Amino acid sequence: MTGVDRFGNRIDPEVGFARGRVLASSRDEVRRLRRAQRVAAETVAASGPESIAVFTGNARCFPIEPDDVGIWCEEWVGPGVFADRLQDVVVGHLGGDGTEAVAVLNRTSAAIVAAVLSLAGGRPVVSVVPRGDRSHASVVRGCGLAGVRLVEVDDAAAVGEPRPALVVITPVTSTLARMADRDVSAAVAAARSAGATVFLDDAYGARLRPVLHGGARSMELGPDLVVTNADKAGLSGPRAGVMAGRPECLVPVLARASELGMEARAPVAAGALRSLERFDPAMLQQQAADGRAVADALAERLGDDVVHRSDLGPSVSEEDVLGLLVDRSSRPTTALVPCEATAAVGMLLLRDGGVLTVNTHGQPGGRVCIRLKPTAGAVDRVGGAERLAAALDEALDIVAGHLDDPDWVARLLFGDD
Fold first, then answer.
1. Helix orientation angle between 83-94 and 266-277, rounded to the nearest 10 degrees
2. What is the pLDDT of residues 345-365, one digit of tens each?
3. DSSP 265-295
4. What residues make up the domain containing 153?
5. Which sign, positive or negative, has the C-alpha torsion 405, 410, 415, 417?
6. Four-residue CA torsion sign, 258, 118, 132, 151
7. Mean pLDDT of 50-73
8. Are residues 219 and 357 both part of a single domain?
């Protein structure tokens, strides 16, 4: 990764994008999130729940049944009551052989951080990612907390060189860059040859690869541990990390997560179980079709050169967004950095059209490109793909008029905070 973006702004290596005057830190990202939550709440109060259309790719519903609120959600006994059912469903979903242990953590990021803390053993951690992409911020932060070096590679041949105790493989990243199954298998084999524990971060890939590409299920690729997300790629939520793997690897991870308060409590674990039970591949296929329609409409507005297509919808990089804004404003310079530009566009989409994106609701350190991954029914809620593309185009025009006014951006993102 280069040290600066194409506008000359220094990139923060922890998150992979440049900080600015308005969004200068994780604290500011939290302020932006809290403001966005209030804006969404005001929209719902005025126009009802159907006025919000979620384009984060994460539904984040809570699909427990009325009877689950009783014993299943009771903290002392409930987890034991549904433990066997959770074991069967998770192992089946991830393609295990039945010998695996399972666990639910409060976030996929929590599982990744806990795995690094418990399994790195003071040695470097190797992160294998698709070519041209980068590791999730939780891998970077986990290594920082563990005090170990992170070595990022995109080639199986380089996996064993740092003598790692842990290799984290991300077959499908949050931008939906994807490794072929043969490359994942090669990385697994290289990690095993190096004597490392193999941890598959399959938040998206656990369903995206088998359903959309006819690929292998997660455990069939041979890792020691797998984590997937209960609200991504055709799952309904809640937000949680669902893990499976060899007991001797999983138990230390769960122990460290429990020490740090990152394990899922009974209601969240019960919700994750119901989410997995209700998984329907047809829902994921429909989301992919909706994403293609949005990509086509956006490319018609902005051009194929800046609209990047993925399995679940289009994205426009933060640097391309700022470039579009500079072109539209006829100003050679700007007081904003790319992450502030995409956040401003996202807040306008939310405020004026009920379009909820990661640019308003993402967690600190998350990707800051504009991503439009529709959840079920989202495209219909905004009046179709063409209307969504038009709304984004209008938001770009508005922000382009304020490139030299960070105070306007701050008011938009933070309100009266």
1. 50
2. 999 999 999 999 999 999 888
3. PHHHHHHHHHHHHT--HHHHHHHHHHHHHHH
4. 66-277
5. negative
6. positive
7. 91
8. no
